[in-house]
Specification:
With about 475 residues, the protein is of the alpha/beta class. It folds into three domains: about 100 residues, 3-Layer(aba) Sandwich (Calcium-transporting ATPase, cytoplasmic domain N), CATH 3.40.1110; about 130 residues, Rossmann fold (3-Layer(aba) Sandwich), CATH 3.40.50; about 220 residues, Up-down Bundle (Calcium-transporting ATPase, transmembrane domain). Helices cover about 55% and strands about 15% of the residues. It is built from 17 helices and 13 strands. The strands form three sheets. The chain has a seven-stranded mixed beta sheet with strand order 1-2-3-6-7-4-5. It has a three-stranded parallel beta sheet with strand order 8-10-9. Helix 10 runs antiparallel to helix 12.
């Protein structure tokens, strides 16, 4: 074909024209071949190729062709129209001869339906913005379970103000068809007023919106270089379900960061508070906790479980929550209150353990409060996992780190290493106090978390009404 039909020049496709043409030479003749959106291309045609010859294209034939186009599009096919003519005088893309329609199927992957359902439960709104016909867009949306109260065309967007476009989106319109790059950009900017928006695309026409989006996602297989350069993320498998999986993984990582901070900040708050208050109000021969003991708590007994929390699995309801509010940081009001109140409770509990064991001697009381910090790890981590609805056995590394911390603590208490840490072996009486304190600490933590959640919900409701 390249030898028989030598390409002379090309009139490229644009989203505004929705068609393209090439001019070729065949012997002494020049021919124009065009393809594009059927409803656009047919307006450039004056004849139709029928039974081997070009005959005039009348209104009846136009309506017949457009009905066939609608029939194919309503089945989810992407439909292209084709036309040609011998180039003479006048415009290359005028008075063309209509050749026919071509329906192409690009079926959505099986996992997309489930991914769309997961988006709904996760509070993620999916909006389809396409250059395809409205019938094709609606048919594909039906296949994947994307709900919409209607379809808006790019030509209709041109007639809408930003306020009217916002109202359309608020009314539940999730499908936009026959759109141009500027239409995509306008829809994106309206959505960004009160939401964080991720935009996925693969073509040159998507580059503007990809660049403007909070997160631009380009397709790695079918995506153009322009789209990839404009994006923040390149999707290697071109699979929408991978975007949803990335959201799930992102939420898991964020949750684990909060758990890590929750756990460490609470323990560190209690350590500082215990030493500060004991220094001011208690008259002891030596500090309530010695530097080597603090180092042991921070490096060994706090450090191992905290690191294990970083690889915690996702909680069962992670994709059943709405997205975080725009601008919300890691230290939310809820988390800050938990750290403060539970930190105060832990400080009070540790002082109680200290005073209850002080009759056995200052050294035994110091060992008890030192061990209390270690045992409270179990209470604090169990509380965090109770809050996240996770079993203690769902993270083997965390379980092993807790057991290792306890074993190491017992090792330094009941071996000659206790001399180095300035501690003494604990008796039955001290262990009863420590175990009851740990159980009470867990119950107190669970109740505190529930009360804080309730308070945040109530005050959040009141502030939203005002």
């Amino acid at each position: 074909l390249d030898i028989e039909y030598r390409r002379v020049y090309e009139i490229p496709f644009t989203s505004e024209r929705k068609m393209m043409s090439v001019v070729v030479e065949k012997g002494e003749k020049k021919l124009v071949f065009s393809k594009g959106a059927p409803e656009i291309l047919i307006l450039r045609c004056s004849k139709v190729y029928h039974e081997g010859k070009a005959v005039p294209l009348d209104e009846n034939k136009i309506h017949e062709i457009l009905r066939k186009n609608e029939s194919l599009a309503s089945k989810g096919l992407r439909v292209l129209g084709f036309a040609f003519k011998e180039l003479g005088e006048g415009e290359a893309e005028e008075n063309l001869v209509w050749l026919g329609l071509q329906g192409m199927i690009d079926p959505p992957r099986k996992e997309v339906y489930k991914a769309i359902e997961e988006c709904k439960t996760a509070g993620i709104r999916v909006v389809m913005i396409t250059g395809d016909s409205p019938l094709t867009a609606k048919a594909i949306a039906g296949e994947v379970g994307l709900e919409s109260s209607g379809v808006v065309l790019g030509s209709e967007i041109d007639e809408l103000s930003n306020k009217e476009l916002e109202e359309k989106l608020a009314s539940g319109i999730n499908i936009f068809a026959r759109t141009s790059p500027m239409h995509k950009l306008r829809i994106l900017e309206v959505l960004q007023r009160d939401s964080r928006v991720a935009m996925a695309g693969d073509g040159v026409n998507d580059a503007l919106a990809l660049k403007k989006a909070d997160v631009g996602i380009a397709m790695g297989i079918r995506g153009t270089e322009v789209a990839k350069e404009a994006s923040d993320i390149i999707l290697l498998d071109d699979n929408f379900a991978s975007i949803v999986a990335a959201v799930r993984e992102g939420r898991r990582i964020f949750d684990n960061l909060r758990k890590f901070i929750n756990y460490l900040f609470t323990c560190n708050f209690a350590e500082v508070a215990v030493i500060f208050l004991a220094t001011i109000f208690l008259t002891l021969r030596e500090p309530v906790l010695l530097p080597v003991q603090l180092l042991w708590i921070n490096l060994v007994t706090d450090g191992l479980p905290a690191l294990a929390l970083g690889i915690d699995p996702a909680s069962p309801d992670i994709m059943n929550r709405p997205p975080r509010k725009k601008g919300e940081g890691i230290l939310s009001k809820r988390l800050s209150l938990q750290i403060l109140i539970i930190g105060i409770e832990l400080t009070a509990l540790l002082f109680l353990i200290f005073f209850l064991t002080l009759d056995s001697g200052e050294s035994i009381a110091r060992t008890a409060i030192f061990t209390g910090f270690v045992l409270y790890e179990f209470a604090r981590i169990t509380g965090i996992r109770f809050q996240e609805r996770l079993s203690l056995f769902s993270n083997e590394l965390l379980l092993l780190s807790l057991i290792a911390s306890l074993m190491l603590q017992l090792l330094i208490i009941y071996t000659p290493a206790n001399v180095f840490f300035h501690i003494e072996p604990l008796g039955f009486h001290e262990w009863v106090i420590l175990i009851f304190g740990t159980v009470f600490g867990f119950i107190l933590t669970a109740v505190t978390v529930l009360m804080i959640s309730k308070l945040i919900s109530v005050f959040g409701d009141i502030s939203s009404r005002w």
